[in-house]
């Protein structure tokens, strides 16, 4: 007799569990028993067939077990059971209070997001955390304090310069409150306004305050293209000066003439680690990024020469997709090459005109641009000190918001072979937790929080594209957060068991 399909067996199992079916009114079962699953525990060690029992919000037993009458049994045969994925560089907090089901992340197996990235964070964090505790989401949330947000608060519109000693002191006061509220540390976005105008000394002074309370530092580097290696050295120097863990956010070589130099970048990071600097990185698995049109002009001089270079080296016209353009919404979803052709103009001219229109009207704009090599991405992902991230949002045009983690499992595990399955899961779970300083999550072990994802390793994969950015992944059979079922075949459930993860309570 042929085996019952995995999704049918899972549906039958879930149907027997009170509280684990979407929209069911009753409370969760006393205990959940995952039977005969391929357990990938998040440590990077070999997967094994085992049983896992959850009681309340914790894992209470792992091994060759027998279910009891109090257990709600889920048949895990043919499925992998892993810790819930941890997104260490996420923007999924935007709109989370209004859409707490967080379909984008839950549907790809993510159970914890770390926000406050690229130097931008809600201020004050205490208010954001309190709002999440009053109206929890389906996922856990931790946050960094953002340098750009703090700098904007202190300097206002007069930010196109280095800060004075008094202004840095004021930033330190704001940062102290954010750290007291539970921020994991300091994040910077040194390629963006207003952080691009800050000196390294300013950043180091703030980072030292974060380091003094056990905080960490994550950074969107000052350059991911022209001055990439100098920017990498700046991050290493901050780690050297402060003694704190430092992480490269969404590490990439985003310029054609940098392609193929991933090993050189990693050698520089390895040398820093050998010196004793705790430097790590996160990577998302896409050749294209999303940001503003102006980010490709580091000196903010919008000349024809600079635009020509940008389109030749950093974002080709046929690889630049308009994600938002408030002055002309009809351009959304079209490439720069297509718009230029329809206007009968060359792409450089149109690029500069679009920037000028957005700046003149203060209109919101964003692009998705192709700048990276798949081979470099594979090399960066395979570095032992790289964890997976998304850099995604709940409703953005970039497919990373819905597909980054499952894309790694499809493309970089099954198709390219850059990673073994256990290694990939480790980079999404145990290693990610370690890099963020989060304890009791990211592992399947007795005493850990029961953040879990059940998936089919032979079919799991992303379906989101720039054309259909909200297409959910396939092969993700069920997701549990703090022991409660939040996602399954029927979609997002009504459970909202997510918690705020503060640095002092990790």
Helix tally equals 15
Low-confidence stretches: 1-28
Q: Structural class, from helix and strand content? A: alpha/beta
Mean pLDDT reading: 93
| Percent range of helical residues | 25-40%
What can be said about the biggest beta sheet?
A: 9 strands, mixed
Number of strands: 21
Cα-to-Cα separation, first versus last residue: 49 Å
Shape: globular
Strand content: 15-25%
Evaluate the radius of gyration: 23 Å
Considering the chains and any ligands shown, give keywords for the structure.
506 residues; disordered N terminus; 21 strands; 33% helix; alpha/beta; 15 helices; single chain
Overview of the molecule:
Helix content is 33%, strand content 20%. By secondary structure, it is of the alpha/beta class. The strands form 4 sheets. Strands 1, 2, 3, 4, 5, 18, 19, 20 and 21 form a 9-stranded mixed β-sheet that branches. It has a 6-stranded parallel β-sheet with strand order 9-10-11-12-13-17, with helices on both faces. A 3-stranded parallel β-sheet has the order 6-7-8, with helices on one face. Helix 6 (200-212) links the parallel strand 10 (185-189) and strand 11 (216-220). The longest helix has 17 residues, at 165-181. It is globular. Mean pLDDT is 93; it is low at 1-28.
Furnish the topology, listing elements before pairings.
Elements: H1 6-15, E1 31-39, E2 48-55, E3 58-63, E4 71-75, E5 80-83, E6 85-87, H2 103-106, E7 110-115, H3 125-134, E8 140-143, E9 145-146, H4 147-155, H5 165-181, E10 185-189, H6 200-212, E11 216-220, H7 228-242, E12 246-248, H8 262-275, E13 279-283, E14 288-291, H9 304-314, E15 320-325, H10 336-343, H11 347-361, E16 365-370, H12 374-382, E17 386-388, H13 400-415, H14 421-428, H15 430-436, E18 452-455, E19 476-481, E20 484-488, E21 491-492
Parallel strand pairs: 1-4, 1-5, 6-7, 7-8, 9-10, 10-11, 11-12, 12-13, 13-17
Antiparallel strand pairs: 1-2, 2-3, 5-18, 14-16, 15-16, 18-19, 19-20, 20-21
Helix pairs in contact: 4-5, 5-6, 6-7, 7-8, 9-11, 10-11, 13-14, 14-15
